[in-house]
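Lecture 7 notes: from sequence to structure.

We start with a single chain of 391 residues. Read the sequence below before looking at the structure.
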Amino acid sequence: MKQILFLYIITALKYPIYDYKWQLSRINEYYKKDNILLEKFSLQIPSKCEHFANQITFSEDFKHSINSFFGVKDIYYGNFKDSINRIIPVVIKYFGNDNINKIILENNESFHINHNQSNEVEIIENLKKMFLKQSHLEGTKFCSESKGIDRFIDLWNHNKSKLLKIIYLNNNIQLLLLPILQLANEKEISSSNNQRKYQIPKVYEICGNTMYQSYDGQLLLNYFNSSFELKLKITKQLIIGMEQFTEGISGFRIYLTDFNADNVVFNEETEEISFIDLDNVIIVDSTKILEVKSHTHEFIECLGCFAYIPEEICSAYISDLNYFAICQFLREDLYKNVKNGFLYPIPKKYHRKLMYLLDTCFNYSSMLKQKYASRYAIMKELLNEIDNIIM
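Now the structure, written as tokens:
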């Protein structure tokens, strides 16, 4: 711990964290790097992106600055003014993968020399095959075929270059998944419902592999010691969120394989959660699965990790993996410590019923179908219990 603190001090002296120009410099470096890639394919980052970056006032919060400077992921925090001069908090994430982009360039180096329509179609097919191999995508599995990719990327902005979308897809699934889900949110909000369907950050701009998205609150890690009532309100939203991902969009079901308190935030003003990290996912094109069968996930012993069998999920019309993940999170941590479950400690007067539902959900199997048709049925009963408590 002392060595880490010493490293912080030495680095801060050499590169003062209060000099926020280093953050803008990094973002401009990302733009430059991505433009080198995109120009090879007759594409480019929109000219408005440089102006947008220059409008950002970077966060003076010490914790944010430390995380940006030393963090493993390329994430930065700041603010910008919207069209009516409101101060809007923003999170800037860089999703570029240097190794992937190097492979993309090496495998398609003749494109910029012999650029024509047939050549572009061939490149797109090559990049789709590369994506489906999945060997380069940490945490993402796309269960479909080439035509399924076409259908998926067409869910986002028809005016965007198909080639650009395929390049995004190979770098990080979130560069497409978040805008696709946001479009669904915008349709939902414009209707009489006036609420988000998917609990995700708003995407303000995508510039190459850099995404500007809304700052939606603090990590769920900060709420383990909150009041039981607040934790129940958060739990209700988590369950509904997992239900929406399981339902999916246009037949594409979304299963979260790295669900934890680091990947969800809570906004105390709006009292809403957002899932902020969706790169560890399995996306299943359920429209291509002829046999309508469901997959019941069974706990796999794996201390400190979340284990599952991708082939079982990919071959099922629908899986209850998301419901298992939320039950485990509420009940215990990945080391089977119930004291680290999100709902711990459950007050005595609610303990018996809630723990029964969580235990039944966690240990669910076909043997329990006489009482509960599925984990989804248990989730519905848990939601009813939560409503009875917090009403």
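The two ends are 45 Å apart (CA to CA). Keep this in mind for problem set 3.
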